[in-house]
Write a structure and sequence with these properties.
With 762 residues, the protein is an alpha/beta fold. It has 4 domains: 3-110, Carbon monoxide dehydrogenase alpha subunit. Chain M, domain 1 (Helicase, Ruva Protein, domain 3), CATH 1.10.8.190; 118-240 and 250-343, Rossmann fold; 368-513, Bifunctional carbon monoxide dehydrogenase/acetyl-coa synthase(codh/acs), Chain M, domain 3; 531-757, Bifunctional carbon monoxide dehydrogenase/acetyl-coa synthase(codh/acs), Chain M, domain 5 (3-Layer(aba) Sandwich). The strands form 7 sheets. Strands 5-4-3-6-7-8 form a 6-stranded parallel beta sheet, with helices on both faces. It has a 4-stranded mixed beta sheet with strand order 12-9-15-14. The longest helix is centred in the N-terminal third of the chain and has 29 residues, at 3-31. The chain is globular, with a radius of gyration of 27 Å.
Length: 762
Amino acid sequence: MSRYIATRAIRGSNALVVEAEAMLQKALADKGPETPVAFPNTAYYLPFAFGMTGRKVETLGELVPVLDHARSLLHPVLSNENWTPYLGETLDSGMATLFAAEIIEAIRYIYDLQPEMMPGFELAGGTAYKRPNNGTGENGLLGHLNGPIDDIQLRSWGIQLVDGRMPGFAAIVGAAKSNEVAVKLVRELQRRNILTFLAGNVNGRSIIHQLMEEGVELGYDTYTVPFGTDTLSAIYALGFATRSALTFGGMKGGMARDILLYNKERVFAFVLALGEVDDLKYAAAAGAINFGFPVIADTVIPEILPTGVTTYEHVVSMPFNEIDGVDDLERAERLVQKCIEIRGVKVQIADVPVPVPYGSAFEGEVVRKANMRVEFGGKYSRAFEYLRMRPMEDVVDGRIEVIGPGFEDQPPQGHMDVGIVIDVAGRQMQADFEPVLERQIHYFINGASGIQHIGQRDIAWIRISEAATDKGFNLEHFGKILHSRFHSDFGAIVDKVQVTIYTDPELLPDKLAEAREAFDFRNRRLADLTDNAVDEFYSCTLCQSFAPNHVCVVSPERLGLCGAYNWLDCKASYNINPTGPNQPIKLGRPIDTTKGYWEGTNDYAKIGSHDVVQEVAMYSIMENPMTACGCFECIVMLVPEANGVMIVSREDTSMTPSGMTFSTLAGVAGGGLQTPGVMGVGKYYLISPKFISADGGFKRVVWMSSYLKETMADELKVVAEREGDLDLIDRIADERSASTVDELLAWMEEHNHPALVMDPIF
């Protein structure tokens, strides 16, 4: 253990706790102890304090015992007289630093100093929190940095965290040697799909400033989140890590050791310290080490080699100018490679031959009209994409054809029609896999920087940016992306991939008609694919990397709670990887088909949950409901007074009749536990005939987030018709009409909701 590091970390921790104490005393005097305290749009109160101590901090006064706890972890600055192991003192000081940092950031929110103001800055997707007078940017995103990660975003990233698309996260603190190096570091992390958090500065200059100056988009959409230019804002990264354990791991507040071990074993993160490392950065680094996150510096600092807290090295020094490389850009690439190596991040990179950066980090990138070179689909043109299985002899692997004109002759911000037809062949390919593979086109194309893809089938909408065009991106590159990705991701079932891109105005209508005929056939085929028509369901254990005891059973009429995997997806996944996370569950003898019990599903529940869950009822919320991890799209919860259930979308931050918001409810629904009356689900399960069918079905829904009503209007209309009540959706309350049980009951009476006369739900 480095005595130098220990000294500086202890010194930095003591100083920060003193600063936190002074700020808290001032805030108590100015605002009073009952002043509300919170990180907006996040669950678990102040997450680090809650996770480590179990304290639910909701007011200024409740910060006092947290500060006392931080003070109890402090140690005196080391003397020159004794030489002893200092690891314990250093780790304690790191934890005290994180408590103090969270206290300070929480107080800054009270004074409207967080999220940090950044005039003229626009997040590429980001926190839903809107600062007063922060500018007039779209969705209130203009004029400030991100601050803590919204709970909605944490959960929406959940499936990417568990299925490996997002293999880990990096916290970059400080400033790079140059703007070019800053961009290279971030691009290398994006290329590997690593979520990147930005914080801190060196002499007032932050990597955030460097990236802004180079026009790099920052925000949720690009996996690169600017927390703040103060080192203290790195607490949001450790808060994110704490919330991951609480959200996905089923941990409870106060389970400090378990939360720290969970992160060491399951959350692959590291800290990259750029530039001079001061006392505060040493102290914050000590805090990160408690989580099992190593710290890599690009300057000369003492090193701490393996002692067991992290998986490999604890603190590594890689002086930037001493890294082997022909230039600074190559040195930056090798620095990232070393960080990944030290933390043991498992990264898979598809070799996609396109002239723009490529990776999942660009999937949410938005191409605004002002920056657009051309668009396909949308309001002014047509775009469709169609994947079809063909005999082996009819497909030439790697053939990419553009039939018709390119977009070079289109005026800037122009539009044109396009049809993308993908022919695939393979010995293990099946017609049922066509829609599974076709849905991947969205993710594959979106991985290219400067390309925006929305929708699927014949409602696709694609934009290409000016920046991508300037780098040489053209229509043929769509084919290169699809050929490369289908081979790399589905090589077990796809042997040949051929792509034809139609822009010819004479040929395109016929190809579109052919595609629509296939879409109609698939729709009819899927409509016939019911639970009663198959003899096996599928397991999904992807989320067990984060929620070890969670079991997910996917049937034709009940998709996974994350919304990302249906029965066909799981079937295809099994064929691709027979030993992977999706395994067939032979149903065997039916026990109770009304509630959804089979010998096979119960046997799997016991094995899959490591004997924690004994039975799962596929069609009931009241009896042995399916467990959840934390990445569910909606929560269904019993409202006993109303004889029905409410459905809360994760996009809904409002108060519900239960007296809890989605974020609070999620703590009850997740963690791999069975809670009768509470269930996490994928939103499209709501329209299934099997939706809580054992408990009365969709007519039990008495309250629903307006977001679901609006975004699923067409689907819900079909449900109302199926239930024989065309006004059913209008009879269901939402946050605009009822936020308490009394308001809900009054609404139900006024609108004659059917649940009022249904048999008691329990």
